[in-house]
Amino acid sequence: MKIATFNINNVVSRLAVLTAWLEAEQPDVVCLQELKADQGAFPLAALEALGYGAVWKGQRTWNGVAILARGMTPVLTRTALPGDPDKAQARYIEAAVNGVLVGGLYLPNGNPAPGPKFDYKLVWFEAFNAHAQTLLDAKVPVVLAGDYNVVPTEADLYPNHSYGDNALLRPESRAAFQRLLDQGWTDGLRAIHPTGPLWTFWSYLRFRWPKDKGLRIDHLLVSPQLTDALVDAGVDRWVRDLDGASDHAPAWITLDR
Predict the structure, then answer these.
(1) pTM
(2) What CATH number corresponds to the domain at position 40?
(3) Is residue 148 flagged as an active site residue?
(4) What are the φ/ψ torsions at residue 123 (nearest 5 degrees)?
(5) Cα–Cα distance for residue pair 141/220, rounded to 1 Å
(6) Could you say which residues are annotated as the site Transition state stabilizer (predicted)?
(7) Catalytic one among 147, 156, 187, 218?
(8) 52 in catalytic set
(9) By residue range, what is the domain housing residue 53?
C-alpha cells in the first residue's frame, strides 16, 4: 500500500502534472494540499478517469486539501481539525482507506515570524498535536501525511542556507514537531532513510531547483500499529522537473499490508 503526499499548488492549473505522476507511479492513496479551488471546481471527473476516487475540502485562492484512493472512494470522517482556530481555512481532512485512517494536512506557513501568522501556526499546531494524541489513544492504524511547513532539523535542508528566522525553521516550530514525534509517531521517510538529503520542496526563487537547494517539509507519520509494516519510502523528484511543476515533489511511504 503506497501512501503519498503532494502539495500540488493549484490542482486545476497543474492537473497535467498530477495526471502524469499518478499514471507513472500509481500510488494507492494520495493526500493533496493547496488545491486553490472552490469545492465545485475540484477535477473529480478527470481523477475518476484515472481510476481514483476522492474526498476534498476546497477553498478559493488558498489552502484546500484532498484524499485520493485508487479504485475506491475514501470513507470521509473529518473535513476540519478539531479545535481549529480558524475554521474558514481548509487545512485538514481525514478518511479511511482499506483499513488505514489517513489524515491529510496543510499546516500554516507562519511567515512572517514573529507575528500574527506565526502565532496562528503555533496554535494550529497545538490543536493538531492534541488530535494526533486522540488518534494514538484509539490504537488504530493511522498515517498523518501532508505539508507540515516544518524543517525538523538542519539535516533537512541544504547547507549554508539563507532561511534564517523563517517560520519553517523557528525553534518553536521544530519543538512542536518534536512533541508530535514524542507521542509515538514514526517519521516514515527518516525511518527508511536515516541520513542524507530528502528534499521535498525547492523554492521558485534564486534557481533553487537547478542548484538542488531544497527543504524537507512534507512528512508522513505512522502510528505504532503500522511501524512494522513500513517497508519503503522516497521522494519522486522527477515531478519537480516537469513543465509547470509545483514547487513541491511527492513524498511517499510503502506499507506491507
Answers:
(1) 0.98
(2) 3.60.10.10
(3) no
(4) -65, -45
(5) 13
(6) 149
(7) 147
(8) no
(9) 2-255
Q: Return the pLDDT at 91.
A: 98
| DSSP conformation class of 255 | E
pLDDT for 37-62, tens place per residue?
A: 999 999 999 999 999 999 999 999 89
Per-10-residue mean pLDDT of the chain, 257 residues long, equals 98 98 98 98 98 97 96 98 94 98 98 97 98 98 98 96 93 98 98 96 96 98 98 98 98 97
Cα separation of 178 and 112, whole Å? 22
Which residues does 7 contact at the CB level (< 8 Å), separation at least 6? 32, 33, 34, 106, 146, 147, 201, 218, 246, 247, 248
| The one catalytic residue among 148, 156, 219, 248 | 248
Query: Cell digits for 42?
Result: 475540484
Q: What is the pLDDT of residue 162?
A: 87
Could you tell me the CA-to-CA distances from 184 to 93, 153, 180, 204, 226 in Å, in that order?
21, 18, 8, 35, 11
**Residues in binding site for Mg(2+):** 7, 34, 147, 149, 247-248
d(CA 117, CA 108): 8
| C-alpha cell recorded at residue 49 | 478517469
pLDDT computed for residue 164 by the predictor: 85
Q: How many CB atoms lie within 10 A of CB 50?
A: 13
How far apart are alpha carbons 115 and 78 in whole angstroms? 29
b (16+ CB within 10 A) / e for 58-84:
bbeeebbbbbbbbeebbeeebeebeeb
Domain count, the chain: 1
The predicted pLDDT at position 101 comes to 98
The identity of residue 61, as a single letter, is T
- Please state the separation of Cα 51 from the chain's center in Å: 22
Q: Which grid coordinates are listed for 150?
A: 516544518
